[in-house]
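We modelled the chain as a single entity of 220 amino acids. Its sequence is:
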Amino acid sequence: MARSTAHRMLATLLSEGFVRQDPVTKTYGPGRRMLEVGLAALRNLDVRAAARPELEALRDELGETVHLVLLEGTQILFVDSVESNRAVRVGSRTGMTMPAHCTAAGKVILAGLPPDALEEYLDALPAGLTPRSMEDPAVVREEIRQVGQRGWATNYEESEDGLSAVAVAIPEPSGITRSSITVSLPAERLRPERAPEIAEATTRRAQAVGARLLRALSAP
């Protein structure tokens, strides 16, 4: 790479905080933004490692596919999945993103946001994914309020035709809600009377993940 090109690239990275320059030696090193990215990735890996045993246990208990989900801006990101062993099941969504309000996982995370952060999301409300998706900010706000009171969220074919889900937020030591566990299953298997049963089992697993994260944070 030409020196002039490298200099322009470093100047851009420097202005954005991804690198820093030593004022004496003039050498470059990782900047604040790069460290933030690395720490965020490390936190995500911590959640994934802590959650994996509980995802597997919940799959075995309910016989349905279970996902670990994180909030990324206005989207939720599926970061891990344990598939059901049933012939008719929901497949892994690992790596996929969806608008948060169209999913049970996203709704329960949104319910844990500070009011101003939720309003920012509603101001930039993404388009829905199916005819059942909510697209009126007032309707979404009321749904999130109910989810917050109940402690768990549902999705009845709002993200994908034929797919429904129940989700519970993972309590984290920071007190900031940014992840959840969601049980995904064919819509015909999520009868209204079954949702509280799934929510109860998922809550136990989410609390176990939260306890594991707290122990990891407290370890010397």
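As a brief sanity check on the tokenised model: The mean pLDDT is 89. The domain at 46-218 is CATH 3.30.450.40 (Beta-Lactamase).
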